[in-house]
């Protein structure tokens, strides 16, 4: 029986197991559901043991969330491949926004809906399918590293890599945590933006005062904060923070009608920024205000409020130093305080972006395997989001080849309501990884 037939026949069971994982509410950001994250890790271990893994265990660093390391030793002379995914998920948000229950995998019109089906329990399911395709005896060495806190910034990842360096060392790292270019069009991600976030607090008064009595003379904190936040962009919507870098952009076209549909941008709302769409989304910095802390509407009174806060998230160009970029954001905020308002900035999360060299025998073998599985050649794309472990893996294992693969597509809506997985693309991804592992075992020589 061919690998094509084997993968096709095992898909129903893999999808059933994916549904069981989706039912575990492994939201790493919610301390009340820490036990669910633990249960998810143990379920991953159980699935790998059932798949024939002789060494699967839960690991953690600094008392953090549970990760899983599992190892299939390499046959003599064969390379080792580390397959990465993460089993923690984003909060579901308001269930009213979901068309199906968020923690119940539900098939609708060729897509599977549920939190984590794409990001990133679906990535683990692809790895599981490939291992089952070989009857638990892959033709190359396989290590699985299934992280448990990716959705909260992978704060303990560097320590996990350091403490488990020998077990995680590999010739190739396959990170199944990105999106394809489109439904039916596979892609390898070769650039990722980094992240620099902070919280800015603005104070203008030591206590609230009557807006009628003092309005027009005394600035309130929220108005001052709004003026400060407005300085982050120019009139066209380009980031106006001095010193942030821009990376070279690929010569790719992103059709505007497709982008409007995928993003849900209303008709009549203009794009922001300048340059090609892929340059703006993958290669240039972007700054967003993702939260405000001020008096809520239902508690508002005619009062000039003394303090207001905002959380700022900056996506930075691939290759940009995250600490330097955050320093530039903080400098801008301090230098643009309106009306002498007191500004205090608290540093938040940072993550390095990455540029990945898609070259060498492993990359060539991967391209051929994906072309066979999908029936069309994969494209090389960037992503505007951050995958912090890519830089961590590159730093810890500089000689290894890194391949960033995908199970999702632009309509998968990871992190949002109605997250979904295109089932035909999932089947192709399972076959592609299976063929890729087989191809690695038949390379004429290792790099």
Q: How is this fold's topology laid out?
A:
Blueprint: H1 3-22, H2 34-50, E1 55-59, E2 67-72, E3 80-86, E4 106-108, E5 111-113, H3 121-133, E6 141-147, H4 157-163, H5 165-168, E7 172-179, E8 187-192, E9 194-203, E10 209-210, H6 211-214, H7 221-230, H8 256-263, H9 277-283, E11 286-293, E12 303-304, E13 307-316, H10 322-335, E14 342-351, E15 354-355, H11 361-374, E16 379-383, H12 388-396, E17 401-408, E18 420-422, H13 423-440
Parallel strand pairs: 3-6, 3-7, 7-17, 8-16
Antiparallel strand pairs: 1-2, 2-6, 4-5, 5-18, 8-15, 9-13, 9-14, 10-12, 11-13
Helix pairs in contact: 1-3, 1-13, 3-13, 4-12, 11-13
Please characterize this protein's 3D structure.
- It is a single chain.
- Helices cover 32% and strands 23% of the residues.
- Helix 1 (3-22) crosses helix 13 (423-440) and helix 3 (121-133) crosses helix 13.
- The two termini are 31 Å apart.
- It has 447 residues and is of the alpha+beta class.
- The protein has 2 domains: 3-192 and 354-440, Aminopeptidase (3-Layer(aba) Sandwich), CATH 3.40.630.10; 194-247 and 284-351, 2-Layer Sandwich (Alpha-Beta Plaits), CATH 3.30.70.360.
- Strand 4 (106-108) and strand 5 form a beta hairpin.
- Strands 1-2-6-3-7-17 form a 6-stranded mixed sheet. The chain has a 4-stranded antiparallel sheet with strand order 11-13-9-14. A 3-stranded antiparallel sheet has the order 4-5-18.
- The chain has helices at residues 3-22, 34-50, 121-133, 157-163, 165-168, 211-214, 221-230, 256-263, 277-283, 322-335, 361-374, 388-396, 423-440, and strands at 55-59, 67-72, 80-86, 106-108, 111-113, 141-147, 172-179, 187-192, 194-203, 209-210, 286-293, 303-304, 307-316, 342-351, 354-355, 379-383, 401-408, 420-422.
């Amino acid at each position: 029986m061919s690998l094509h037939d084997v993968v096709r026949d095992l898909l129903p069971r893999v999808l059933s197991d994916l549904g069981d994982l989706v039912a575990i509410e492994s939201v790493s950001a919610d301390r009340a559901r820490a036990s669910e994250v633990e249960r998810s890790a143990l379920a991953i271990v159980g699935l790998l043991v059932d798949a024939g893994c002789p060494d699967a265990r839960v690991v953690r660093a600094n008392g953090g969330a549970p990760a899983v390391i599992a190892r299939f030793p390499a046959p003599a002379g064969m390379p080792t491949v580390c397959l990465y995914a993460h089993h923690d998920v984003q909060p579901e948000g308001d269930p009213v926004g979901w068309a199906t229950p968020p923690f119940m995998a539900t098939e609708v019109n060729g897509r599977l809906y549920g939190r984590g089906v794409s990001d990133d329990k679906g990535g683990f399911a692809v790895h599981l399918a490939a291992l089952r395709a070989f009857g638990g005896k892959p033709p190359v060495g396989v290590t699985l590293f299934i992280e448990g806190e990716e959705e909260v910034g992978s704060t303990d990842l560097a320590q996990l890599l350091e403490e488990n360096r020998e077990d995680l060392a590999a010739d190739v790292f396959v990170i199944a945590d990105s999106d394809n270019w489109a439904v039916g069009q596979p892609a390898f991600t070769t650039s990722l933006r980094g992240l620099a976030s902070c919280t800015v607090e603005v104070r203008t008064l030591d206590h609230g005062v009557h807006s009628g009595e003092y309005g027009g003379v005394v600035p309130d904190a929220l108005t001052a904060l709004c003026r400060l936040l407005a300085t982050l962009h120019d009139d066209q919507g380009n980031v106006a923070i001095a010193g942030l870098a821009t990376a070279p952009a690929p010569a790719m076209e992103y059709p505007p009608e497709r982008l409007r549909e995928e993003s849900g941008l209303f008709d009549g709302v203009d794009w922001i920024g300048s340059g090609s769409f892929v340059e703006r989304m993958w290669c240039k910095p972007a700054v967003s205000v993702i939260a405000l802390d001020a008096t809520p509407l239902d508690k508002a009174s005619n009062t000039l409020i003394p303090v207001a806060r905002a959380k700022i998230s900056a996506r930075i160009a691939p290759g940009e130093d995250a600490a330097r970029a955050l320093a530039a954001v903080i400098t801008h905020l301090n230098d643009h305080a309106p009306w002498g308002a007191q500004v205090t900035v608290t540093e938040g999360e940072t993550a390095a972006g990455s540029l990945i060299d898609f070259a060498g025998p492993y990359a060539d073998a991967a391209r051929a395997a994906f072309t066979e599985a999908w029936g069309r050649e994969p494209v090389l794309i960037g992503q505007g989001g951050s995958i912090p472990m890519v830089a961590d893996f590159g730093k810890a294992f500089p000689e290894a080849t890194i391949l960033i693969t995908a199970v999702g597509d632009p309509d998968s809506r990871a992190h949002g309501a109605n997250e979904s997985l295109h089932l035909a693309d999932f089947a192709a991804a399972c076959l592609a990884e299976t063929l890729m592992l087989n191809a690695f075992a038949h390379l004429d020589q290792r790099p």
